[in-house]
Amino acid sequence: MTERIWDKFLTDRDKAVFDASGFGATAEWGKRPALLVIDVNYAFCDEKPVPILDSIKTWRTSCGEDAWEAMPVLQRLIHLCRGKGVPVIYTTGTRRADNWDSGSWSWKNSRRSEDASPMTTSHGHDGNDIVDEIAPAPQDIVVLKQKPSGFAGTPLHSYLQLLGCDSVIVTGTTTSGCVRATVLDAFSLNFRVTVVEDGCFDRAQSSHAINLCDMHAKYANVYHSDVVAEHLQGLRAGMFELPSGMGISAKAAE
Question: What pLDDT score does 101 carry?
Fold first, then answer.
């Protein structure tokens, strides 16, 4: 059996429990997927690959170099989906200028006061801007959110219904936070869920691995991007009526 990224973190007892309990069965793929790209913005990625302990001095939510290791995977899957006409839906955060709507985010981080002066990159990007390397195209959809799940208080569910999607392929960050929250809500709404193992990242490598393990056990199929790419290549092109993108520049799509 192929070793999984989480195996080294599991005890012998854990492995025995999973073997005996029936968790981790492989579910069927959905027939009409959307690719979700969760929060791959400058606040989580920095402007370039930087060791995480250096990056978080500036961007406290950064995942450092692990974000950039996932970037070629995201580029490949986004390119495949656009070629097939499969919906590509991004999420990223949004806040009032005075940060009043931060709400419960204010309770669990000692550096939250830094948000009173929103940061920009050296090229003038806001921290919530999706990184240029995977920038949305005019036909792509961008959902703005304020909580971990891409579904919480957003139109994501209604957009998936409008597109006729029965499944989601989830990528992005953080694996233990916004990715997992989005996966659980998608599962709760009876979408079939796939998580791309090497297309997700987190600031804590153990959290990344264990949350992939837990999602694979109960809520989703966790696959390497090669498996997901093969599935996408086998889909019939032109299944979806996507936004036309007319009058929308790639930058405006953000």
Answer: 84
Give the largest Cα separation in the chain, rounded: 57
How far, in Å, CA of 231 to CA of 171, rounded? 15
Look up the domain containing 98 and give its range.
14-233
Q: How confident is the model at residue 105 (pLDDT cuts 50, 70, 90)?
A: confident
| 7 is a domain residue | no
Q: Nearest CA to 200 among 9, 54, 71, 83?
A: 71
pTM of the model: 0.93
List the CATH number of the domain containing 120. 3.40.50.850
Tally of domains within the chain:
1
Alpha helices in the chain (DSSP H): 12-21, 42-45, 52-58, 65-84, 156-163, 180-188, 205-218, 225-233
3-state SS assignment for residue 198: strand
